[in-house]
Design goal:
This protein is mostly helical. About 85% of the residues lie in helices and about 0% in strands. Helix 1 runs antiparallel to helix 2. The N and C termini lie far apart (about 55 Å).
């Protein structure tokens, strides 16, 4: 079984540009690696926040629809 890897090439190019720029600016590979790791953590936290926000909105809509359906059935 062959495993397919889905890669977002835009993110890869941005990552490489930022890495090259950090190495050029800091003249230190270790400091650049540390900064990139911090950027990964911030990216993961923002993605998690956005996912939770979308999930909450989805379930709020479901809850609102269910309450509306119950009130419609009650009024009949």
């Amino acid at each position: 079984m062959k495993v397919k890897l889905h890669v977002n090439w835009k993110k890869v190019i941005v990552f490489l540009l930022i890495s090259a720029g950090l190495i050029y600016l800091t003249h230190s590979l270790l400091m650049s690696i540390g900064i990139v790791l911090l950027l990964f953590v911030v990216d993961a936290l923002l993605a998690n926040y956005e996912y939770r926000k979308q999930t909450k909105a989805f379930f709020d809509d479901l809850r609102r629809d269910e309450e509306q359906r119950k009130t419609d059935q009650h009024n009949k």
